[in-house]
Design brief:
Length: about 160
């Protein structure tokens, strides 16, 4: 099993440091080449370069009130989520479809639903995608299928 990983192209885990300017401040970001490639792919989908994408992620994260004390880790997680959401079918693998054209609320709702479903049926939710969601109780119909959050949770 490990052969798939240890015999991969060594350049994937080699780190590269890139300097960039965000709001007039020069900073540097050091990431493995694998993550730079994913960021380039994400940026291309929406007609941006990597610096534009990173700047946009930075601004939107600050606007959302996130503490970006470890911005490099945040970028790695963005890459992981991108790949994970492709595996679940929430982000199309077709690189010609811009991510900005996708309905983020709908995707996040489906992700919450997967977390709720695993929780409601005794399964263990995937911590990586469920940890940040407050798992509100789900209404379950008479056949035991997941329905939707109770009215009190939906109106909150």
């Amino acid at each position: 099993m490990c052969e798939l990983f240890i015999k991969a192209n060594v350049s994937l885990w080699e780190s590269t440091t890139r300097s960039l300017r965000i709001d007039g401040m020069v900073t540097s970001v050091r990431l493995e080449n694998f993550f730079w490639s994913r960021l380039e792919e994400i940026a291309r989908r929406d007609g941006m370069n990597v610096v534009q994408l990173i700047t946009k992620l930075y601004h939107e994260s600050i606007d959302a009130g996130h503490d970006l004390g470890n911005f490099t880790s945040f970028l790695r997680v963005c890459c992981g989520r991108y790949l994970d959401l492709q595996l679940t079918g929430d982000i199309p693998t077709d690189p010609s479809q811009p991510i900005a054209s996708l309905n983020a609320d709908s995707i996040l709702g489906r992700e919450r639903g997967r977390c709720h479903q695993a929780d409601a049926f005794g399964g263990k939710p995937d911590v990586s995608s469920c940890e940040g969601f407050a798992l509100q109780p789900l209404a379950v119909n008479h056949e035991g299928d997941q329905a939707r959050p109770p009215r009190s949770a939906r109106s909150a």
